[in-house]
Amino acid sequence: MQKFIALVCSWTILSLVVWSPVSRADNAMPKGLVHIKTELSYAALVKKLNAAVTNNKMGLVTRASVTVGAKRVLKKTIPGNMVVGVYHPRFAVRMLKASIPAGIEAPLRFYITENANNTANLSYKTPSSVFAPYKIKDLSKMASELDAIFANIAREATSQKP
Question: What is the pTM of this model?
Fold first, then answer.
């Protein structure tokens, strides 16, 4: 019985080390994910992303922040963390014409995270990677156009220029 307990304990510890989300969370970079480390503060990156979205004639559709929710509901302070949904009706109409089921992908999102050293990162999935599973020519064409727009938004938002 002791050997069985020791084996179970060893297996449990090994499983926690190998499969632990904490040990693997920062290493999980799926195909199509763009991750940009910046020297900007979280607040500065949020502000610059807002401006870059507008400059690129896209719309800020949604904004969700675990940081804000944790503070309001749980009275807990955590590092800055925000998902920003970005899209525009000119792309929404084209997307739905190509594929009604693809509508679940809109808005496309940027993800801003705050680091321990008071800098922030910007991440997003390329639109072409988001729409690739649908395998629809018109959707892929639209996604390629959005790839360029999202790259421009990310470049503007993460630049060190004021």
Answer: 0.82
